[in-house]
Design a protein that fits this description.
The complex is a heterodimer of chains A (117) and B (111). Chain A has no helices and eleven strands. By secondary structure, chain A is an all-beta fold. Chain A is globular and about 40 Å long. With 111 residues, chain B is an all-beta fold. Chain B has no helices and twelve strands. Classes of the chains: A mainly beta (117), B mainly beta (111).
Amino acid sequence: EAGVTQFPSHSVIEKGQTVTLRCDPISGHDNLYWYRRVMGKEIKFLLHFVKESKQDESGMPNNRFLAERTGGTYSTLKVQPAELEDSGVYFCASSLLTSGTGAGELFFGEGSRLTVL
Amino acid sequence: GNSVTQMEGPVTLSEEAFLTINCTYTATGYPSLFWYVQYPGEGLQLLLKATKADDKGSNKGFEATYRKETTSFHLEKGSVQVSDSAVYFCALTPQAQKLVFGQGTRLTINP
């Protein structure tokens, strides 16, 4: 079974440009999460989809970030316009359960490294 | 609020050494606690977890015990191998919601 896949693995753009990151979750996983790790610090939550709906977007830093999950399958995260502080590794994760003892068992992709110059 | 504080790295050990990576947390309620690991070139993967006080999670020779009295979940392994070189993240889920991570500890094991 395929795991969580993310594309691109690395993107280098200039300040002010636009970048779109894509995540394909594990088939059948209704829950999809975006996280970000900046400058070797802690991994921070960005948002959570349940199917195509945004369950929690409290971690989105500002309105330059737009996440979508059309049809409840793959998700995209667009940064427009990109700023220097957006550089980091963006992780996508998916899961089947959000309650009970299985909660918190997320399956992560390898991450998309974004470098803004 | 909810937060996780990990032992700062990087940590470098020789093969067969004993490993401890400290993790303490602050949380409301009774969170579940996790250790995730990221091997080079791979995504994060769940290493072990504990869902209530005094539970011990274990996997691949690693262990961690949920200590409510000290709000800790330290990761230990008795004899590390070169293949254990990775970045380790302690995390919690407050009330089965989103994961809150620590800053990660890079571990390098030399032969």
